[in-house]
Amino acid sequence: MSGMKQKDISERLRAARDAKQAMAAKFRQRPGSDDPAVAERRAARAAVSAARDARLAERKAQRLAENARVAAEREALEAEQAEQEKRATAEQAVNDARLESERKAARDARYAARKARK
After folding, report:
1. Is-contact 38 31, C-beta < 8 A?
2. What angle do CA 40, 45, 49 make, to 5 degrees?
3. Does pLDDT of 118 surpass 90?
4. CA-to-CA distance for 65 and 59, rounded, in angstroms?
5. What is the pLDDT of residue 1?
6. Domain boundaries, the chain
7. What pLDDT is recorded for position 36?
8. Any idea of the CA torsion for 75, 76, 78, 79, to the nearest 10 degrees?
């Protein structure tokens, strides 16, 4: 078994300095904003973003068209129901008037029969 190697302070400072220099070198190796690869990636991201925006706008337009269609259908259904209610009310009024006239005729006939018996 080997024992732990004790590092003195200068070795630790040197290791930290080397790590910082390695990070700085890695950062300096990164391509600049004028690099063609960076410009190409930026253009690709812009194209993807534009396509996404176009799809979102298309979906929004479809959603609005669908909402308008549903609203028109609902309005047509409500108008049809109102017409049916109006027609039913008119039929009910005609039936009530017919029944009332039949009742009056029956009452008059009973009255006339009573008068005829006397």
Report:
1. yes
2. 145
3. no
4. 10
5. 46
6. 38-117
7. 86
8. 120
**Neighbour tally for 38: CB within 10 Å:** 13
31 phi and psi angles, rounded to 5 deg: -70, 150
**Residue 35 amino acid letter:** D
Q: Please give the Cα distance from 88 to 94 (Å, whole number).
A: 10
pLDDT at residue 67 tops 70: yes
| pLDDT tens digit sequence for 87-107 | 999 999 999 999 999 999 999
Q: Are 44 and 50 in contact (CB under 8 A)?
A: no
Tell me how far apart the alpha carbons of residues 36 and 109 are, in angstroms, rounded to a whole number. Answer: 108
Which residue carries 């200068």 as its tokens? 10
DSSP 8-state code for residue 4: P
